[in-house]
């Protein structure tokens, strides 16, 4: 059987499985905050369909389709993964599970973790049992992520962690946190940081939600007071946590940029959303039309660029610092797209929970895209120095 | 034409307004109101009326100070700086201008009540998601000597708090403007939960009775009364937006000077310097358009359409840029509710839509310039 | 679908093209041609034909190498870098693609002559100032077994040098495409003095005879033949523009590293760094769209319209930004004829218009995306 | 008589004079390079109408309407000047004379010159007899205008000038040049420069035209080899030439920005030009329409800003460094406007001397707007430091 035949056989099988297993209510293409299933011990399913969908998908490894089977995945290769997303999109299926464990910790563990760590931490992520959050930023650090002040004092078999993190997404709903902790205060800034895994239920861990301009609190401040972290809860080597962080930053940038790419579900809706706002003759408002066309063109081209970098990386041609480019272009575009959607929505978009749902909240949320995971300014400086080789 | 320079009187008015508002209505006042679940502070509005602001466009014969549009814009600009919540635009600018287009005992009395702060107004025009008076479908059917109003309005700013409504509706041969109490039978107001925390409503009119006396101006000729009112409102809104732009920009420049990253003030980074400088240039140019609109409304109102659309279009674009740069340059903190920048961003967004968005006014400019 | 990554063959093709062009056709070749008052270098075109470039889209049966659109785009990109002057797009891409849509002895012979460099073509579509095939008014009236062509064309790129013309004209029930020698009686060519110093002409057709044999494809069905030819041409033009963008950008980054002002390299100024970095990001994104267009034309030509318009729109916008930033960052020297940047700016402007401008292709995208 | 009545009386009188004296051929609103009358000893009038118009206007002082009568002007006040421009525009009259003498040297002499200098140099400028050019920039100096290397060695009654200037506009057609010359090589950069007036016919002055990308040569390189410049040919004090230069730079910036302002003749034509390109339904191309509307709005607002600063300065409120703003905004807009005009012109605009005349040349010319007289980047840095007070 040729590669193509294998892939098509997989498609047929998957299509059948989806037909049988994806509940009808989960086929509404839901992308909003409400529609997401995050998992974790605090999780309450919004419907039995949501629960069924998660359990069935997890059983097949489809919550993390590209992870190895032994860690809870389906072991799909790149071609199969594409087919997987195509078939999911075909029936408008919701993602059965989303989480920082899937997006962030998983890739880090797969790359830096020991076999034992993978076996221990990955399957509960894949099954949506344990929810993770990320502890990188600290108050006042801003773009200077490596200026980590939270300390882990070496106590032999454990570190004693003290300090404070900020912008920890959904820390109040998470079970565990992966965090950058300074374990060597004498070393240069980037050389004394370790990447630790911490149980949020441990004594001394506290969280406080931060209310954002969109009215919701997706982020928290997280405080550590004399928290004991066993030595085996480190990913990678001691004081080499910055390597893990950098790897994940690159990964995160690609992920955030994907949000604006237009080939993802949200992007595919742009034309449809605009058509709704338009009259019978189409979108005749010249200003809006011109902006919409430019946005659509850019979204499609950025989507193709994501695709191209994946292909390049598969072909062994590293994308290198291009993730900074993708992050910059993707997030700036996403902001523009949401400005456009607010504009198209007119006064209907100006109400919380108005006729257009959470359009205003989504719009405000995008403003953080070009700040979190490295600001647009930092991305441009990276390109300037590392790609273009400009001095300074 | 009067000069494009602030007069001494205007500068004094601005200074005294600023002094009052800094103590009585800083951004915190909006925050407190929001946290209390309210959209209106009647006590504040009474104080403003006492200072003569409610009567800024009311003729002296009706107890107003009749200072003109440029002065109203000065007040609106200062209010914008701290995102003051008040029915100033709806009542003191739009309704007062509409009412003074008609000279009779009834409008004289209404204007007097506006000047004292004893009555508030809201303008009900929009029916779709975009401002377009000519697209109004709401009907006012002749019924004996009066009319029966049926239809729906949305984005009626101050529509929840207002005592009276100015309602645009379609009569037999055109559009007519009605001035009716907000609690008249058949009027249902649903508060809109606005992102800028100000008062607004969706309003349903079910067979609402209106007499000939409720008609403001001539039947089928609403625009004679409404056009000047809209223009005064659009110019004052542009001024308010330029005020909020100034407020957001001031915060941002202050932050650039104070915030350190990578060992130095971020205001030393040339990329940010140039963006801040560009923004300042845009602000300066917009200021000219707003000053000009005020002068035209006061001295050559028949020909003010271009000036007003220019001011609203520029103010809209500049405000968006100012709040977007404001949030981005502040970084994460700018995204938190605890910080004020988000209030500026949300107000700028609502101001962008109200009384015609950028595109609406750009098309007015294009039409007036022949393309 | 083939991957969005340059194949080894494509990389080798690019390298060998670059090697050849750097010695045979650097920007100085364009300058010398211009200074000599010429718009075509037949010797250069013959060498290109010898290397197989003229036959890049000609079937092997007709002596071509039939490498496909992606390969043609690779060549066009390399040519763009040094603003190479040649009839490559008109002849090897557009005409060859049109001809191969029709399989007969005549087209086979024509394709063979293209591959050897023995015939050059130009495409005559535009009649107004903007590209719009559907707006063609030129007539081809039935006359016995043949036709009589009357009308005017403009912006016929390579129209002065071409041996033959592909002419789009209106027949009784639609559009038809004719393939006629440029020196046929009734054809008058007026050279256009183009800002990019390349060959172009305004052409008048006065009662020009065409036989049924001169018809390319079916009468009234020009688009069957023309659409693939236009798409191949638009994609290759986008690739050429991305090449010129790369050329201009390379010069600019080099200048940023070398030029000193106020005591340091201007590339140390963060504002310029960020602008250069932004431009690079745009270039990278455009590169994806162009690669994708080539893949679609080669593997799924029926559905290539979106990909092609995307590529041309992006290439147009990115090229304008690159040359504008290029001139500004070079300062005064960039404005002098002695420096090459101006050639890039002028070529970018002509490329922006040819075969559909940004707006044309944006509207194609909008239509295909449903708004 | 009230001020208003005086002004209206002036209007009536002027209207009559224009009716009688402005030749019909000079009423075509000509703004192109060809239509300009530059004057000077090398000047050849393109028509007798052009000659008549210059002579009649000069006799009334209308070539420099705001200059004092004794220096060749008409002594108009601000209100009268506005009326003058309105009435000229009403009949579409060409400017009778344009020159660097009028724009640049005149204002400098009026501000810094002695009475004798004014009497000597200004009337020939007003009559179009002597044409001036400007010698500021030097090769390699770029934005760093004060890095003047051309030296004037003190020889008692004269300076001996040696060096080279670049970007001297029309130096090959000029009679005199005003130039920045380093007269003290030991002083700090800005403190050793003098503002000298030099006769281009003097021995040792040579010019070489620079061909620009638009195909024309409006600029030259100008070389000085042992040129003797008498001591009385200095404007302002010795070694204080930078004060004069700064004053003129500000003036020049306002002038260049005015080109994009939309209230000048060129601007007023935008709507008309676009209407030509449009079909019967108006300008329906959404992208072009959106760009055109934005350009028109910005042009009008920048025009009003010029107006506002003039009013402020009359009211004694200095505009200060705002000239940097006007220069930046005006020139960037002008570039955009010409991009728009090229776009609107389509392929007709791509030919030298095509159906749209010199549209391409004009477009290319605008690219220098944001470079000459201080680049846009320098303008932004000036605003950043002097207006916003940012560090650096």
TrEMBL record, chains A, D:
Alphabetic keyword roster: FAD, Flavoprotein, Oxidoreductase
Query: Would you name any one GO CC term?
Result: plasma membrane
Q: Which Pfam families match?
A: Acyl-CoA_dh_1, Acyl-CoA_dh_M, Acyl-CoA_dh_N
Q: Where is each Acyl-CoA dehydrogenase/oxidase C-terminal domain found?
A: 239-388
Q: Which domain of life is it from?
A: Bacteria
Record-stated family: Belongs to the acyl-CoA dehydrogenase family.
Which PANTHER family does this entry report, sorted A to Z? ACYL-COA DEHYDROGENASE, ACYL-COA DEHYDROGENASE FADE29
Q: Which residues form the Acyl-CoA dehydrogenase/oxidase N-terminal domain?
A: 48-129
Please state what the protein is called. Answer: Alkylation response protein AidB-like acyl-CoA dehydrogenase
Cofactor(s) recorded in Swiss-Prot or TrEMBL: FAD
Report the InterPro entries cross-referenced here.
Answer: Acyl-CoA_Oxase/DH_mid-dom (IPR006091), Acyl-CoA_Oxase/DH_mid-dom_sf (IPR046373), AcylCo_DH-like_C (IPR036250), AcylCo_DH/oxidase_C (IPR009075), AcylCoA_DH/ox_N (IPR013786), AcylCoA_DH/ox_N_sf (IPR037069), AcylCoA_DH/oxidase_NM_dom_sf (IPR009100), Mycobact_Acyl-CoA_DH (IPR052161)
| Ion transport among keywords | no
Please give one Gene Ontology molecular function term for this protein: flavin adenine dinucleotide binding
Organism of origin is Sulfitobacter mediterraneus
Q: Which residues form the Acyl-CoA oxidase/dehydrogenase middle domain?
A: 133-227
TrEMBL record, chains B, C:
Domain Acyl-CoA dehydrogenase/oxidase C-terminal intervals: 225-366
What are the recorded GO MF terms, alphabetically? Answer: acyl-CoA dehydrogenase activity; flavin adenine dinucleotide binding
Under CDD domains, the record lists: ACAD
Q: Which Gene3D superfamilies match?
A: Acyl-CoA dehydrogenase/oxidase, N-terminal domain (1.10.540.10), Butyryl-CoA Dehydrogenase, subunit A, domain 2 (2.40.110.10), Butyryl-CoA Dehydrogenase, subunit A, domain 3 (1.20.140.10)
Which coenzymes or cofactors are required?
Answer: FAD
UniProt keyword annotations, A-Z:
FAD, Flavoprotein, Oxidoreductase
Name all Acyl-CoA oxidase/dehydrogenase middle domain ranges. 127-208
Q: Which InterPro entries match?
A: Acyl-CoA_Oxase/DH_mid-dom, Acyl-CoA_Oxase/DH_mid-dom_sf, AcylCo_DH-like_C, AcylCo_DH/oxidase_C, AcylCoA_DH/ox_N, AcylCoA_DH/ox_N_sf, AcylCoA_DH/oxidase_NM_dom_sf
Reply yes or no: does the keyword Kinase apply: no
Query: Where's the Acyl-CoA dehydrogenase/oxidase N-terminal domain?
Result: 7-118
Q: Report the domain of life of the source organism.
A: Bacteria
Family as reported in the entry's similarity comment: Belongs to the acyl-CoA dehydrogenase family.
Q: What protein name applies here?
A: Acyl-CoA dehydrogenase
């Amino acid at each position: 059987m040729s590669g193509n035949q294998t892939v098509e056989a997989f498609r047929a099988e998957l299509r059948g499985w989806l037909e049988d297993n994806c509940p009808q209510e989960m086929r509404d293409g839901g992308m909003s905050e409400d529609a997401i299933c995050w998992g974790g011990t605090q999780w309450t399913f919004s419907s039995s369909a949501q629960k069924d969908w998660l359990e069935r998908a997890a059983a097949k490894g489809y919550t993390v389709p590209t992870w190895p089977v032994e860690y809870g995945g389906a072991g799909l290769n790149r071609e199969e993964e594409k087919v997987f997303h195509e078939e999911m999109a075909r029936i408008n299926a919701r993602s059965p599970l989303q989480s920082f464990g899937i997006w962030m910790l998983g890739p880090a563990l797969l790359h830096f973790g020991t076999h034992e760590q993978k076996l221990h931490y990955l399957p509960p992520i894949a099954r949506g049992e344990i929810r993770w959050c990320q502890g990188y930023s600290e108050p006042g650090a801003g773009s200077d992520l490596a200026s980590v002040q939270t300390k882990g004092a070496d106590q032999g078999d454990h570190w004693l962690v003290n300090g404070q993190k900020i912008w920890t997404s959904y820390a109040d709903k998470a079970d565990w946190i992966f965090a950058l902790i300074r374990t060597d205060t004498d070393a240069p800034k980037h050389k004394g940081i370790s990447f630790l895994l911490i149980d949020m239920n441990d004594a001394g861990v506290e969280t406080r939600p931060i209310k954002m301009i969109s009215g919701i609190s997706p982020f928290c401040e997280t405080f550590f007071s004399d928290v004991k972290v066993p030595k085996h809860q480190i990913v990678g080597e001691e004081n080499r946590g910055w390597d893990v962080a950098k790897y994940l930053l690159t990964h995160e940038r690609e992920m955030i940029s994907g949000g604006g790419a237009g080939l993802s579900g949200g992007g595919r809706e742009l034309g449809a959303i605009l058509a709704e706002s338009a009259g019978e003759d189409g979108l005749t408002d010249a200003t809006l039309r011109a902006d919409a066309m430019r946005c659509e063109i850019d979204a499609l081209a950025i989507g193709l660029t994501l695709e191209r970098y994946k292909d390049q990386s598969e072909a062994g041609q590293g994308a290198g610092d291009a993730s900074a480019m993708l992050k910059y272009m993707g997030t700036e575009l996403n902001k523009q797209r949401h400005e456009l959607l607010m504009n198209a929505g007119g006064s209907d978009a100006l109400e919380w929970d108005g006729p257009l749902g959470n359009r205003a909240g989504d719009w405000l949320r995008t403003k953080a895209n070009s700040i979190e995971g490295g600001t647009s300014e930092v991305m441009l400086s990276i390109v300037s120095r590392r790609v273009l080789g400009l001095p300074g | 034409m009067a000069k494009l320079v602030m007069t001494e009187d205007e500068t004094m008015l601005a200074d005294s307004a600023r002094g009052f508002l800094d103590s009585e209505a800083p951004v915190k006042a909006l925050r407190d109101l929001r946290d209390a679940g309210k959209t209106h502070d009647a006590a504040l509005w009474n104080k403003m009326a006492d200072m003569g602001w409610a009567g800024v466009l009311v003729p002296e014969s009706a107890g107003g100070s009749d200072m003109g549009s440029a002065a109203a814009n000065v007040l609106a600009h200062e209010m914008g700086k701290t995102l003051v919540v008040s029915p100033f635009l709806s009542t003191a600018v739009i309704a007062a201008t509409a009412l003074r287009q008609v000279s009779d005992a009834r409008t004289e009395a209404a204007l007097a009540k506006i000047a004292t702060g004893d009555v508030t107004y809201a303008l009900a025009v929009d029916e779709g998601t975009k401002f377009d008076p000519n697209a109004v479908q709401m009907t006012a059917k002749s019924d004996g000597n009066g009319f029966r109003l049926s239809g729906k309005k949305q984005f009626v700013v101050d529509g929840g708090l207002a005592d009276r409504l100015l309602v645009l509706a379609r009569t037999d041969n055109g559009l007519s403007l009605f001035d009716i109490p907000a609690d008249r039978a058949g009027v249902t107001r649903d508060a809109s939960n606005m992102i800028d925390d100000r008062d607004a409503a969706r309003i349903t009119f079910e067979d609402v009775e209106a007499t000939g006396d409720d008609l403001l101006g001539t039947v089928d000729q609403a625009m004679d009364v409404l056009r000047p009112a809209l223009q005064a409102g659009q110019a004052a809104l542009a001024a308010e937006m330029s005020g909020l732009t100034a407020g957001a920009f001031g915060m941002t420049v202050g932050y650039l000077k104070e915030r350190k990253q990578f060992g130095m003030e971020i205001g030393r980074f040339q990329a940010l310097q140039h963006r801040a400088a560009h923004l300042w240039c845009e602000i300066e140019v917009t200021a000219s358009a707003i000053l000009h609109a005020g002068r035209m409304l006061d001295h050559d109102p028949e020909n003010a359409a271009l000036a007003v659309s220019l001011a609203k279009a520029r103010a809209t674009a500049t405000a968006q840029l100012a709040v977007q740069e404001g949030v981005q340059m502040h970084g994460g903190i700018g995204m938190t509710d605890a910080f004020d920048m988000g209030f500026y961003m949300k107000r700028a967004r609502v101001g962008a839509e109200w009384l015609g968005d950028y595109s609406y006014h750009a098309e007015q400019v294009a039409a007036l310039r022949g393309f």
